[in-house]
């Protein structure tokens, strides 16, 4: 089973580097193209264990069905992000609208503020490749408008943090049946960076089931 990793908004495939170092399996990290050219082709010739972090999970749910025998995992993920009448745990759409407007004025400021909210020190540099305002905007639009709840049956398991400031425990609980959620008491929104060993164990266990 091929392991495919998909990063979240405002990040790049590099966020998986420490997790990949811990995994004894071959992995492929897709690139949603927020910094440099995208690389988003999913293999079609073998079963996949597709792992999405944050927006990466919603992106996976929006793709066509994966090869027979595939599984999807979420880390700090969700099946819907924006608030709706039947999804009160989501983020107010106006927050995403403000971020979209801010991208046009100063994309780097929006990115740094979001990454700081995720727990990245403000002084940490952004990825060195050229950022794409267009693809960043498409990502925010998916966060605002995307709804993968009808696809949640495709998700094998979730790994979530109780101290996640972006995807709250309420949002996690509203996204998935409790029996499929594994909780970490700490780690914030960036478990692949804050606890790569935990993420690798979670992925490995699911790959071996």
UniProtKB/TrEMBL annotation:
Record flagged with keyword Protein biosynthesis: no
Tell me the GO molecular function terms. hydrolase activity
AB hydrolase-1 domain ranges (all copies): 3-201
Signal peptide segment: none
Question: Which keywords belong to this entry?
Answer: Hydrolase
Spell out the SUPFAM superfamilies in the cross-references. Answer: alpha/beta-Hydrolases
Q: Which Pfam family is one of this chain's hits?
A: Abhydrolase_6
Q: Does the keyword Cell cycle apply?
A: no
Out of the domains of life, which is the source? Bacteria
Name assigned to this protein: Alpha/beta hydrolase
- Species whose genome carries this gene: Acetobacter conturbans
